[in-house]
Design brief:
Elements (H helix, E strand, L loop, with lengths): L26 E4 L2 E5 L6 E5 H12 L6 H24 L10 E2 L11 H8 L2 H16 L2 E5 L2 E2 L4 E2 L9 H5 L21 E7 H11 L16 E3 L5 E5 L4 E3 H7 L7 E5 L3 E7 L7 E2 H8 L5 H8 L4 E7 L5
Helix pairs in contact: 1-2, 1-4, 2-4, 2-8, 2-9
């Protein structure tokens, strides 16, 4: 299935980014069609890789981002789709009705049908359509590999100044999803955000997750015992009788970012967050920042994903 095609010399980045050596270019067999379960209608549709990626890009990343950032996103989305399809071949999921994956942003990755994209973007759909399709066509020819398998090429909107680790969010580690500096993300307009959560909402959310959870009577002590790193990503929060991961709280409370701090102001809980999203893998804002400073999609992906190769793909059905 895999063959080494060529080797290239190491490349150098500017002083803002580390130096990494280039790696062999491989070929990876891919699918002709993806079977996608549409959660809204409940139907399974077959869609080619390019059209699927067009729908992914419209649903996942601002189309005004630099073309190289869109290419990086397209390759990441294609890789993630291949990884999910591979998983489902090995462990079929009955709720998917034979699909490779769904359009759910909770369990898979966001995807817009053409109708959804047109409704969401309005006139801007036509403005960005050609640019998005060009990136999708490129992304459909590439896949990110680690040890000859597609990686979980997860991504997020804006990091908290460095990327997060998978362990904080999903409780597992992957060698290619490591802490990567992304300090330029702090330039994002809404990098710091706050929102209030009532005591009733907070109690309901926590009990909905764990009906046996016990919190102190004093609201000021509810989130007093938690572990976070220097960036702000929370690894664990302790209650009187249990421990929640930072990823758990991020999901339970629908927080803007997995880098957060929760305090009590005497009336409500106040969640302060840095960045946007779980923080693991590629920062889309960071990808755009790098692209606008001359880095191509290859540089971007090899910066945010550790110890990976980027492979050409060949079609399983045509072998071309």
């Amino acid at each position: 299935m895999f063959a080494v095609l060529l080797f290239s010399v190491p490349y150098l980045w500017n002083a803002a980014f580390p130096v990494k050596a280039a790696v062999p270019v491989l070929q990876y067999e891919t699918q002709e069609l993806f079977r996608v379960f549409l959660t809204e209608s409940g139907e399974v549709v077959e869609i080619g890789a390019v059209d699927y990626l067009v729908g992914c890009l419209f649903a996942q990343i601002p189309p005004g981002y630099h073309a190289e950032a869109l290419k990086a996103q397209a390759v990441a989305a294609h890789t993630y789709a291949l990884r999910l399809a591979l998983n489902n071949k090995n462990f079929p999921q009955a709720e998917l009705n034979g699909a490779d994956f769904s359009d759910s942003s909770v369990t898979c990755q966001p995807f817009f049908t053409e109708e959804q994209a047109r409704e969401y973007y309005g006139i801007e759909y036509e403005i960005y359509s050609a640019k998005i399709r060009e990136a999708a066509e490129y992304g459909a020819t590439r896949v990110i590999l680690h040890e000859n398998e597609p990686i979980y090429a997860v991504y997020h909107s804006v990091s908290a100044g460095a990327t997060n680790t998978a362990r904080y969010i999903w409780g597992v580690d992957f060698p290619y999803l490591q802490r990567i500096p992304s300090d330029w993300d702090r330039e994002f307009t809404n990098f710091v955000s706050t929102n209030e959560i009532s005591t009733t909402q907070m109690r309901s959310a926590l009990l909905g997750f764990d009906p046996d959870i016990i919190m102190p009577l004093d609201y000021t002590r509810w989130f007093a015992e938690y572990s976070s790193d220097a960036i702000g990503y929370v690894s664990a929060v302790s209650t009187r009788n249990s421990t929640l991961s930072g990823g758990d709280l991020w999901r339970i409370l629908n927080l803007r970012s997995a880098a957060f701090e929760i305090t009590f102001n005497g009336h409500n809980f106040v969640a302060t967050t840095w960045g946007h999203g779980h923080g693991v893998g590629m920062s889309q804002f960071g990808a755009d920042y790098m692209a606008r400073r001359g880095h191509n999609y290859d540089n971007i992906l090899k910066y945010y994903y550790t110890d990976i190769t980027i492979s050409d793909v060949i079609n399983l059905h045509t072998n071309t």
